[in-house]
Amino acid sequence: MLEIKDLHVSYGAIDAVKGISLHVDEGEIVSLIGANGAGKTTTLHTITGLVPAKSGSITYDGHDLLKTHAEKIITLGMAHVPEGRHVFTRMTVQENLEMGAFSLKDQSGIGRDLEMVFEYFPRLRERRRQLAGTLSGGEQQMVAMGRALMGHPKTILMDEPSMGLSPLMVKEIFDIIVTLRDKGITVLLVEQNAKMALSIADRAYVLETGRITMEGKASDLLHDEQVRKAYLGA
Ligand code: ATP
């Protein structure tokens, strides 16, 4: 459903992505792991139209994303949960979630969608009137994911959801990612926490300085000697 072929992306003289190819099939969790600066965020930003490609192709459900405006890409059913969450700190939890609704006019639809988000994240129901800036990092991650779900995406691109969270909270967030996949949402997960990312993914790619160096079933990569040495501290 999402296919990247021979993608090159540069920032001026810096080549951040150097000819990567990958695909994400419907209903999968695919993880893209790699160290700082490997090009993971750049790849996500190119998919969502925030950063232009130099060459290559990205197609999603038959649409050529490199020729599609960022705003239109959202309407194709693709949601992006950015690195650092970017919640609106001076707005309440509920107001943040409402920002993810397609149309603020359809009040009954918004009410239903809020209920759906609160079922995934009961903690957010309790805190619906709390200012988002006063939430813990994990709760802010839940708001960012909930906001994406308000648009009923078919695919979610998640950038470093584990960043800055305690191991317990990371587990909670990753359990929810698995639930989303089980409900039929396709997930492309970018992570530095390779162990967690490989443990929940169906397939994975390893990105090193802009190139894919390994790919395969996540369970195979989790046990691969090279991956264990480089990314799992084994
Ligand atoms: P991290 O986990 O640290 O976010 P990453 O794998 O997501 O790393 P990117 O953020 O995609 O990596 O960065 C890839 C390369 O592109 C890095 O060398 C980075 O310095 C460079 N880069 C990223 N954004 C820009 C930008 N706006 N201008 C110039 N160079 C950039």
From TrEMBL:
Signal peptide from the UniProt entry: none
Biological process terms in GO annotation: L-amino acid transport
TM regions (residue ranges): none
Domain ABC transporter residue range list: 2-234
Database matches in Pfam families: ABC_tran (PF00005)
Keywords from the named record: Amino-acid transport, ATP-binding, Nucleotide-binding, Transport
GO MF annotations in UniProt: ATP binding; ATP hydrolysis activity; branched-chain amino acid transmembrane transporter activity
Domain of life, source organism: Bacteria
Family label: Belongs to the ABC transporter superfamily.
The protein's name in its UniProt record: ABC transporter ATP-binding protein
Organism: Bifidobacterium samirii
